[in-house]
What we know:
The strands form three sheets. Strands 4-5-6-7-8 form a five-stranded parallel beta sheet. Strands 1-2-3 form a three-stranded parallel beta sheet. Helix 6 (about 130-140) links the parallel strand 5 (about 120-130) and strand 6. Helix content is about 45%, strand content about 20%. The chain has eleven helices and ten strands.
Amino acid sequence: xxAGLVDxxxxxxxxxxxxxxxxxxxxxxxxxxxxxxxPRAWPRNHELAQxxxxxxxxLGLHPQxxxxxxxxxxxxxxxxxxxxxxxxxxxDAGPRYYKSMEAQQRVFQHVLxxxxxxxxxxxxxHSVRAVRAVLEHVEAFLPRSRGKVVMHWFTGTKSEARRxxxxxxxxxxxxxxxxxxxxxxxxxxxxxxxxxxxTDGPFTRTGDRPSKPSDVAxxxxxxxxxxRLPAAHxxxxxxxxxxxxxx
Length: 247
């Protein structure tokens, strides 16, 4: 059963058939946050999500695309009032993207400032090799009373996780994180009341195909094994966390 599960980070607009991907997530009863990588993709993603009970669209400008698309931040501004959800945004200091770090920081700072000004936004944040910088930006530009942050596919240290928790962050956990011995101890250190689940499909795979929102069932089962809890209990904790996040 997948009804009532949560996929808090999935790129439904990047599947071969966007409309079918949205419909299948909704029919499965999985609360799915359909993130966007560029503001230009927002209108269609938003349109399809509006027709559903379980899918919501998030407005993003992915840090890996900032070098080519920084000017689209003006379009992002135009759409911000249409949604409570923002993502995918953040910083990426990996080898391919480090050269655009100055531009990435301009965009991320702008996003956080605008979200703080609007208030009550929920932001799913990318932080590859840039956790410290991401948290410094969150602390400087997004007061806890003005918005909430979910650290997507967090791969920082335990101490960085503690700092994120002090800033009020949640963490969305996927199968790849649970399959990594290096990251497993960090996941174990995150309190259950700060956990959400995600797939990051189609960038992750389940078997021989791209992951889809219903595949978070495996993540729930693995978290149950990790914490010695029934999967149904973990699923309820994640649902409760989502309710607390959006309340």
